[in-house]
Write a structure and sequence with these properties.
785 residues, mainly alpha, 34 helices, elongated, cell projection
Length: 785
Amino acid sequence: MENVHLAGEEDDDLYSGYNDYNPTFDTEELDNDVGFQQALRTSHGRRPPVISASIFWKAISITIILLCFLGSTFDPLGQSKGPAPPLESKNEDTPEEKIKILEKKVNDLIEESCIAHVRGDLQLALEKAKDAGRKERTLVRQRDQTGTADHINLDLTYSVLFNLANQYANNDMFPEALNTYQVIVKNKMFTNAGRLKVNMANIYFKQKNYPKAIKFYRMALDQISNTHKDMRIKIMQNIGVVFICMGQYSDAISSFEHIMTESPNIRTGFNLILCYYAIGDRERMKKAFQKLIYVPLGIEDEEKYTPSNDDPHANLVIEAIKNDQLHQMERERKALAEKYIMTAAKLIAPAIEASFAAGFDWCVEMVKSSQYVELANDLEISKAITYLRQKEFNQAVETLKMFEKKDTRVKSAAATNLSFLYFLEKDYDQADRYADLAMMADRYNPAALINKGNTLFVRGDHEKAGEFFKEALRNDSSCTEALYNLGLTYKRLGRLEEALDCFLKLHAILRNNAQVMYQLASLYEVLDDPNQAIQWLMQLISVTPTDAQVLAKLGELYDGEGDKSQAFQYYYESFRYFPSNIDVIEWLGAYYIDTQFCEKAIQYFERATLIQPTQVKWQLMVASCYRRSGNYQKALETYKDIHRKFPENTECLRFLVRLCTDMGLKEVQDYATKLKKVEKMKEIKEQRVKSARDNSARGRREGSASSDSGHSSRGPSARGERLSARLRSLPDSNEPYEASSQRDIDASYLDPLGPQLERPKTAAKKRIEEDEFADEELGDDLLPD
């Protein structure tokens, strides 16, 4: 007990002496030891200093410590040891190394899958994702076998499953994607996996399973805290869109109104206006429009990018950021907002007031008081276009004329539309005037240049028209209307190779445009290259397979090449889609007659009779088919019916005489008498025509001899000329009657696909005929960007 010490009896501190050590080994305080530092200075006092015993032993101790650290020889770079030994190679046969290598392969496959998806190779992306899943399962089994299951990489498992579900969804394999997402969501070891219910809801939305989409959106919303405000807003916006698809506008309005209160944005504001429009609530439409135009865009003012002349360094910075990605994003955001505002105004203007004009005026006033002042003029032009759609042309013209004193951009757009309107009304003088006005306001407006070229084209000044189309292309190389019109101008001028070059360039821009492909086929036909023409028409029917006129054109080309079977195929297809084309009907009827199938030809000529009942030749062809097929009784009845309708037709009477003679009928004498009478009347008519022609010629000679005699004989000769012309215009008794002869029409203006009134509009011929040119669309797209 004498060695037991109680705390507090003798020692004040229980841990006293713990930090005590021999001061000889205190190397940290040598810099502050005055004696030691003096001993190191060999020149101190110019004589050996007097060293005390304590200083001497300290120096000895330090020397011993240094020698222990540095070794027997002083070699600070370790050069005496030789080269470093080689690194030990890893043993890849160990289980841990195999697991690490497999993990790397899984990560690489996930990365390759994502890269393939970005490149658009969805099938390869899915295959890589499946391969990653297989290797990840192999990895899990290896860990189980090595007893390291506790060290499973959950992040890797999550990445594999998530990528696989995404690739299933991208390939429209929705059941597989939902099953994979369900595996992730049900695994409690994955944190925040509940958010993936948004992806599942998106898939249900694509499947149009709207109730389940709503359910999963709400489940995801419940699992996302209020700290993630932006994500909650986006999910609520999705819920509102689903309600619109379901027609539940009241529920959609509740979602959108909440968003506009918490975090307003352009898309939600526009959707809210759509919902109010659907339920017909005028006042709330107005309020929603006012909210829409005051939604903050969060972009910088454009004046920030205007350089100042005072600071050259600042100008350099502004020049550098003027077209950077941030500024481009700001411009895109502003353009999107303007698009939504313009669309909303056009939508609600006719609904919020008694008339659409009053509605547009209200929208214009609201816009003028907002940050979108420049849209007010665009809305006025939209108002004019609405007048046009309602056939109120005078109001449209008056509205557009109001812009003649406005700023340059709006003035040019209004004048362009006015030029187009007058062009449609064939008032080419006014169209030319307003085209000049539009060019004066903005010489770089391609639409104005095209309208100017169009007016010159219709007046026959094709060379000058082509110059304006070229200038439009120089101002806007992507202006397809100018390139199209330039090709038509070259075609009219006979510069077929240059026209072909224009349409080939246009085809490279508009790959599936039926009008361009038709023009190419037409040019190759004119260039005597029917094979190329057929190839382009084949491409054309792949785009518009039901265009009857294109099919008929193919039949015509094959017929010209001597391929009757292919010609019959395309003519027959053309007849199926449009059974009123007389040329097609005539060809098919003639084809069956040539192939000795007269019975089948009858149905085509009977249809032609229905289409043109005043033309006798179709009825004669029907009777002829009956006669050739041996049905003489039916042929006789048909000829008799024709004779009742056209009693002066000599061809019908000749066949009646022949049939009655062959069949031994008593009516043969009656028809023979009628035939002689008709032939005699025809002979008298021809004599009268000849006499009238002689009188008119004699009158012209007498008129040239003296003015008096010419004046006295001008009346009868003029009457004779009119009479002879009138008689010449009448058809012969054996010719079909037509109101006007197509020979009197300039062939350069004929529609290559047939008369417009005899066939429906097709995709290959909406506005274009052989020499028609593309005018500017009348609409908002005429406004400069």
